[in-house]
Amino acid sequence: MENESAEVVRLRDVWPEFERRIPTDAAAADAIFQLLEGQGRIVCRCSSTNVVRAPGGRTFKCLVCRHKTWFTANTLLERTTNLKGWMAAIYLKQNRVVFTPAQLARLTEISPTGAYEIQTKLNLVVCGQINDEALLLQSELFQDAICKRSRETPARLHPVAEELTARGAEVEVDHTPLNTDSVSPSCNELSTADGSLAVVEKYPDATARREPLPVRSIRSAIAFIKGNCHGVSRKYLQLYLAGFCYQFKNLVRAPDSLLNACLAHPPITYNDLLCYVTPVYVQFPWV
Question: Along the 287 residues of the chain, how does pLDDT read in single tens digits?
Fold first, then answer.
């Protein structure tokens, strides 16, 4: 259709190939087992690799000690019931296809809540892969993208008030947006409309070295979060920034690298998501 965005068109073009590969949850389980088996990671607790598994099953049985093992145990996919939904999200993100939880829910016939949880957990995995040398920026530089409340938002205040409480400030909320058009070329600072400066520094380095400020990338990240996600709460800002950089940063990726990362990651509980809070300085691995 003429009004469809490029992202929607790409999603529609890529989806049939995924459906051909992974049509069901059973096919998703088969794909995961084949990947683990090819890497030599299907091993019984008795160290035997002589195992048998029914097609589509989530377990394998050792022919030596007869022990049955869940091969997704102790991974991000432990106890998941929507394997196709997970594989779809991993496949799309691995191939840089932009999608929303609502689109994922419609395509895989899972609940919107389940799709949102999948996307959030994937962003948490991606966040854990960020190099320690990634540029650290003050989270307030992205406050234009913050328009959703969370359990961290002070009562009766705008969601951006989370930024003040995160920094331990007890002042009135200033809704003045950051002006990314005003950039000081000499000191790499972003100035707000009231003249105050948001200094970019390498934190927690005691020397506070100044780093080049990726103004265009900051604008792109804000536009992506507002346009695709309709904004975000400050609580999960870091996860969305990590997802943005993973989606668009032009790096060569090994096949199945994201799936491997999920299979190497310990389970993430709902309580883990509730307890997560974006730090004052966010990692922005764009540069």
Answer: 556 788 888 999 999 999 999 999 999 999 999 999 999 999 999 999 999 999 999 999 999 999 999 999 999 999 998 999 999 999 999 999 999 999 999 999 999 999 999 999 999 999 998 888 888 999 999 999 999 999 999 888 889 888 888 877 544 544 455 454 544 333 344 433 344 444 333 333 333 344 567 888 999 999 999 998 999 999 999 999 999 999 888 778 888 999 999 999 999 999 999 999 999 999 998 76
Domain ranges for the chain, please list them: 6-128, 136-283
Alpha helices in the chain (DSSP H): 6-21, 25-38, 83-94, 101-108, 112-128, 161-166, 215-229, 237-248, 257-264, 270-275
Could you tell me the pTM of the whole model? 0.82
